[in-house]
Structure formats: C-alpha cells, structure tokens
Amino acid sequence: MINFTSALYLGLHHSSRVLQPWQQFSLGVPAALAEPPGATEVAQQLAQLQGCEQGVLLPSTLHLFWDLFGMLFQQQAALFLDAETYAVVRWGVEQFRAKGGEVHVFRHHDPDALLAQIKRLSYGKRKYPVAIADGFCPACGHAAPVGEYLKIVRHFGGLLVLDDTQALGVLGEMPALHCPYGKGGGGILRWSGSSGPDIVVGSSLAKGLGVPVAILAGSNKLIKRFKVTSDTRVHGSPPSVAVIQAARHALIVNRSRGDWLRQRLAQRAAQFRNGLVAMGLNTVGGWFPVQILREIDGSEAVQAHQVLSRLGIQAAVV
C-alpha cells in the first residue's frame, strides 16, 4: 500500500542488522544519575549539526518542552507563543501557565505582532521575554521568520525557542533553486543562517532522521542549567541504548548519503505537486514533503479519502 501519512521523509528505517550491538537495553537509572552509553556523544554531534554548542537527549519532545518551560518559569520568563505552534509545545506551555506563568499568543509568522506584545509587557512588569515558534510550519508551507524573531528577542535580552522537528534532517545550509532543502540536514538554524546563545532548539528525530528520540540544543550555559533543573531526567527513564544507537546510525547515514536523499525527496515532492496541478488540484506546502490539498474540505475530503483507500493509498483527513 502507498503510504502518504508516513513522516519518515528520507526513508530511514534503522534495521537492527545495521546498528551497533548493546549489552544492556537500559541501565535502570535516570539520566540524572548516569547517561546511557553513547547519549552524550550523540547529543553533541546533533547539536553541532544544528549549529549549537551543546545538546542533551530526551525520550520525546513532550519530556523536553515540559522541562524547558519548567526551567523558564523559575527564571521569571514571559512566554510569547506563535498562534500555530505545534500541540506538544503547547502542552509544555500549559504547564507553565498552570503554575501562574504569563503567556501571550501572537499572530502566526508575524514579527510585528510579536514586537508589539513584548513592547506592551516592557511598559509594565519587567520579565524575561521568550518567543516560541515552529521552525517550519507544514500547515502553511513556510519557514518561520527566524531572523526577525531573533532580532526582536535579542533587543529585549530574551530567548527564542524553536520546535524544529519538521526541519531537522530535511532543511540545511545554502538552500538554492536547484537545492531547496539546502545541504547537511541541520535544520532551520542552518537553513536561515541564524545562531547565538539566545536560541534554543527542541526537536524530535522521528521525522527526518527516523528515530523516536528528542534533542534539546543550545548554548553550553543553557544546556548545563537544563540538566540541573530537569524533572524528567530525575523521575523518568532516559532514551534506551537501542534508540541512541539508531540515532548514531542516522547521523552516519546523514553524513554519507543525506544530501542525495534530500535531493531525491525534493524531486519526488515536485513530481507529486506537478501531477496534482495536471489534475487541476493545488496544494499548500511548496517544496516541503507535507502537502495539503487546497479547496477541499468536509464531505469532499472524506470522499476523496475513501477513494484513495480503495486504490490502496493511505492519506489523512485533517
């Protein structure tokens, strides 16, 4: 069956035959007591891939953002949330709000709206402003204006938090017309040319790199503080050794064949879009692999889904 619902964008599967063997699946202790074998090395490699100083692995982005916003609450931060930010980030934000933290929502991909909200806050209570967004939004098919967001929070001495799950492994540096995803697969920071100690990036590897584990990447100072304050690293299990070995393998494949896989993906996305245009259909998504049909909703969407299913094609109604 053809599966258009899979988010394994580069087709990485990590068979057990290609992974390094391990003696123990788990150490039986939380990461706060002992990091699983390979965790520190893989986290550092992923951080460098993204253009950050240091990283730390967590079982999922839910663990990651839960702890990150818990740490920011202790720092008396005020959160400014892009209106279309992904659900898992929002769950972490709700925990921040439940503790009494201040949360503001601004229009999607609108730096002027973010600036206006932070300015209003600066006239009253002085808090540490933290802007939050997805690095790439598949719903609208556009990357966040990372450079503009960063310029704003930097002016006020704040922090930019990005969920880069969609872009990690897909986007990279030096994008061009013939190479829309860029090279290297380092994600939105590499793609946008942004960097600095006032950016922190949380990403799952489950999409572009095909591994169900998360990486928090940022400055040495921020990651060190995160490790000290993280609750889930004390009260929960760390990523398994098997998952860490899969992440290691993903990095090896990314270095050896990643740019070829991304070029192939770009060609297939273009072929798919051109085929739809020939049928009189248009999509949201641009050159990104996630494509959403325009001008089809309600019962039409359900009927289209049923027809595709009968033809052996898996799709999703959204």
Give short descriptive properties of this protein.
7-stranded mixed β-sheet; 318 residues; alpha/beta; 41% helix
Q: Can you walk me through this structure?
A:
This protein has 10 helices and 13 strands. The protein is 41% helix and 16% strand. The strands form 4 sheets. It has a 7-stranded mixed beta sheet, with helices on both faces. It has a two-stranded parallel ribbon with strand order 1-13. It has a two-stranded antiparallel sheet with strand order 6-7. With 318 residues, the chain is an alpha/beta fold. β8, α6 and β9 form a beta-alpha-beta unit. The radius of gyration is 20 Å and the shape is globular.
Structural topology:
Blueprint: E1 2-3, H1 39-50, E2 54-58, H2 61-74, E3 77-82, H3 87-98, E4 102-106, H4 111-122, E5 128-134, E6 136-137, E7 142-143, H5 146-155, E8 159-163, H6 188-192, E9 199-204, E10 214-218, H7 220-229, H8 232-235, H9 241-278, E11 283-284, E12 292-293, H10 298-310, E13 313-314
Parallel strand pairs: 1-13, 3-4, 3-5, 5-8, 8-9
Antiparallel strand pairs: 2-10, 6-7, 9-10, 11-12
Helix pairs in contact: 1-9, 2-3, 4-5
